[in-house]
Amino acid sequence: RLSVPASRLGVPQKPSPRMRGNAGRRRWQPKQQPAEVAAAAEAADTSNGADAAAGARGPDPAEAAASRCTAGSGPAGSAEDGPSPGHLGWAVSFGKNVYGQLGRPTASGSSGTVARIEGLAAAGPASAASCGFDHSALVAGGRLLLFGKNNRGQSGQPSSGQRGDKDRPDPAEDVLVPTPAAGLPSSCIVSSVACGGEHVVLLLEGGEVWALGDNSKGQCGLGAGSPRFSPAARRCERLGPMSAVSAGYRHSAALSEGRGSLYVWGAGNQGQLGLGGRRDSPEPQLLDVGAPVHACVLGRWHSLAATEKCVWAFGWGRFGVLGQGDMTDHRSPVRIEGLPGTSGGLHCIVSGAVHCGAVVGDERQPLVWGRGQLGRLGLGSEANALWPTPVPNISGVEQLAMGGDFSAVRLADGSWHVWGKGEEGQLGLGEVDRAKRLRPTPTQALQGARLVALGDCHGIALP
User: Which superkingdom does the taxonomy of this entry point to (predicted)?
Assistant: First the structure.
């Protein structure tokens, strides 16, 4: 289950005036979903919670991608600077911890308790975070720190007994505490990071893109003939200076510095690269949507890209995740009707595993669409939303984050609300149970957090 990044492709690392919209009162008017299509979508949404990936019956039901949060994959500049008003004074984590993805000294099943991530004092304050399927990343003092599951090198550590087989992963041990990634020169200063399903894409100061982890579909962008698994970070040589990066389950993207050119690579089996076919691409490919791209986010098998005038979607369309009013796949970008671009009041776009969101208008209203099972849309039911739909009674959103089966928002007053699946403690409500929250639920545990990155079943909050 995927996706943060945060974000989380990350949106541009420091929200530009373009992403804040223009002055003037703007209210987004929701589209009516065709009754027969909505009914068909709801009827199709019958699998139970354990498989947001398998329920889609997509190409790889066993795994899913990492979420991208609006601010979580960017640096501190993506939220307000300065100390936090609440009690949160350090990086914290919550949710599933089977593989050490919470950054605590011991791995455990799950934890609904929001607790401090250990071992960061020497590195300095964390400025960016991203969560993958079962691994996590932090940027602290310009260094990349990884922890969690490491079976494909996604936590940046080679195994103790290298087999030397580039086509098979080594049985590397999981990483329980934040640890510097192997292969990255000490002179490199990391500005942002995006965790995919089992890979990591990072952006350095100066615009270089590096990647590590699972490269079986070319998602590290290292070119034809490159190793299928790379626990050591390697530079994506075919990319020039970039301004933002993003990672989905097995595909990745980057935005060029200044020009707004969008490059995509990795798995293309569901059309998620937007190149018109289903082929994988081990090398970055330019995707032309007819205008400069201001932000891009990736989900499990789909992608979104925002321009000045509109938002484009492409890839796997099940559950209405492309916002087209149906469940059709699209191998090339299609416009999400009624959703404004960055000059028309769009503040950000976000993607989880199989649900998406945006914040629009002067009221900063959150809109959501895609799969509704387990309440991940926050609309009060488990029905799918085939069009962008307002979350009731929520406005003034400063950050919207989405994970595998859950979501979170930070409001202008600093309060946080969460909704969706809570079985692994990923809502941070201090409990681990099978309860799901169909509507936004306030939580005091994240008070003072500036930004949150959500993964498949866990999350990280930064002060």
Answer: Eukaryota
